[in-house]
Specification:
Blueprint (H helix, E strand, L loop, with lengths): L10 H10 L3 H8 L15 H4 L10 H14 L1 E7 L5 E5 L2 H14 L15 H19 L6 H10 L6 H19 L6 H12 L21 E2 L6 E3 L7 H13 L9 H15 L6 H15 L10 H5 L3 H13 L5 H35 L11 H12 L4 E3 H8 L3 H14 L4 E5 L2 E5 L4 H6 L4
Antiparallel strand pairs: 1-2, 3-4, 5-7, 6-7
Length: about 450
């Protein structure tokens, strides 16, 4: 169960005690112990972990923390955003974090040498739709949506209306991710944040009028643990929210060279601040993650469009919550949250590369099956993708609209794809369904492909 970590020892109090004891030798030993922002293993630890490590010889755990915090303060940078008591947030960029930021610059922005599908304009929309669906489902599930992934994918690809609250959350998230792409070149404004929230929460709130509206003083909002028995975070007062939202937007839009902050750090800080301020009665997490994607797209990290951070966070939600709590309990040090999120992003990008590798192998296998059929060389990437699925799912039903949604193509293009596979190549069976057709994967499809007469 998530709980508030023990607050670290007060650095000023430790210093005052050393001064009172007139132990200048010990103070010199602490400050000269060559202790940096991280432990010897390169970890940026909170007090709740560091207190269990053996401190350097001659020092107590409190001394070790004092030296570590001093090293962090010496390389820290404030951001123009404050907590509810007006104290600034700040971050450090230790060598380990610097290394990860460099990795992200190489692998998520600019010209990337990698497998063709997401850089090829003919195939990238297929992968983009798939990633948008993945993020929409996972982000909604993090906030309580209970629909299974397969059912949600079917809804989005078939374009059917959501049947319940969970499906509505996912449908809204999918729409919002599309809006982000439209606004990625525009400045962030409070109006845009409210617009995103309205899309994300449309038809899912107890009070529909709260969609796209800041919470009010009468909304008693707290972040609680899973059992709802313990308050983990109380956000700033409602009357402060308009000004705080303005500050967040100014921070997001400021590109002054004299105040440079790495774009990934900015994007993650936006994510953090919406979660911290909790400006809405519900949907804060979805809005925070949506703004992260907006900021990454704005700064040219185009690969992030294909990465679902929520699917990674969902695997260990307690770590996500703890990253917030570590920041809040350690004098607003954002570094904990930055490190957690960069690990999430890196894992997402690594997973994407693995996924693309698997897809490339599957396409290769599907193409090999066509070596001795008249369909060889006649299927585009969309049809190969469907063929691969059909081989694994005998009697699967494919609809024109679903094929259209999966690949972001026109209805006519989708219809042509499926009709060619049924009428010309005999790879699917066409069946009348109401006023339109559906296409069925025959149980003997693999045998058909091995038949040289096909």
């Amino acid at each position: 169960m998530l709980k508030i970590p023990e607050p670290p020892p007060n650095r000023s109090k430790t210093l005052n005690n050393l001064i009172k004891q007139q132990d200048s030798k010990k103070l010199a030993r602490i400050l000269g112990a060559n202790i940096g922002p991280c432990d010897p293993k390169g970890r940026y630890l909170h007090w709740e972990k560091l207190k269990h490590l053996p401190p350097p010889e001659g020092l107590t755990s409190e001394d070790y923390w004092f030296a570590t915090k001093t090293a962090r303060q010496n390389v820290s940078k404030k951001v123009p955003l404050t907590d509810k008591k007006g104290r600034p947030f700040y971050f450090c960029v230790p060598d380990t974090l610097q290394k990860e930021l460099h990795w992200l610059d190489q692998h998520a922005a600019g010209s990337i040498t990698m497998n063709q599908p997401i850089t090829n304009p003919h195939t990238r929309d297929t992968y983009l739709v798939s990633s948008l669906i993945e993020e929409s489902i996972s982000s909604s599930q993090l906030e309580g949506a209970s629909t299974t992934k397969n059912v949600a994918k079917e809804m989005l690809r078939q374009g059917r209306r959501p049947k319940d609250h969970s499906e509505k959350m996912i449908f809204n998230n999918y729409k919002a991710m599309g809006v982000i792409r439209e606004f990625k070149d525009d400045d962030l404004t409070p109006s845009l944040i409210l617009h995103l929230h309205k899309i994300l929460t449309n038809g899912t709130l107890d009070d529909p009028a709260k969609a796209g509206k800041l919470r009010e003083a009468s909304d008693d909002i707290h972040v609680v643990d899973a059992s709802e028995s313990s308050v983990l975070h109380t956000p700033p007062d409602a009357d402060e929210l308009p000004e705080r939202l303005n500050m967040i937007c100014e921070f997001a839009n400021n590109s002054a060279e004299s105040e440079f902050i790495h774009p990934v750090i900015k994007a993650i800080t936006l994510h953090f601040m919406i979660g911290y301020d909790h400006p809405f009665v519900d949907g804060n997490g979805r809005t925070a993650r949506a703004l992260f994607y907006w900021a990454m797209a704005r700064h040219g990290y185009w690969l992030m469009e294909f990465v679902s951070i929520s699917s990674i966070i969902k695997q260990a939600p307690a770590k996500y919550g703890k990253a917030y709590l570590h920041t809040e309990t350690d004098e607003n040090d954002l570094t904990y949250f930055l490190i957690h999120q960069i690990e999430v992003i890196k894992e997402g990008i690594t997973s994407l590369h693995e996924y693309l590798g698997r897809k490339a192998e599957e396409f290769e296998d599907a193409e090999k099956l066509l070596d001795h059929s008249k369909a060889k060389g006649k299927l585009n990437h969309r049809q190969l993708s469907l063929l691969k699925h059909a081989l694994k799912h005998p009697d699967a039903i494919y609809k024109i609209q679903e094929h259209q949604s999966s690949h972001a193509i026109s209805y006519q293009t989708a219809r042509t794809d499926l009709l060619k596979m049924s009428d010309e190549l005999n790879l699917l069976r066409k069946r009348k369904y109401g006023n339109s057709f559906v296409f069925v994967s025959p149980p003997d499809l693999r045998k058909k492909l091995s038949d040289k007469k096909l």
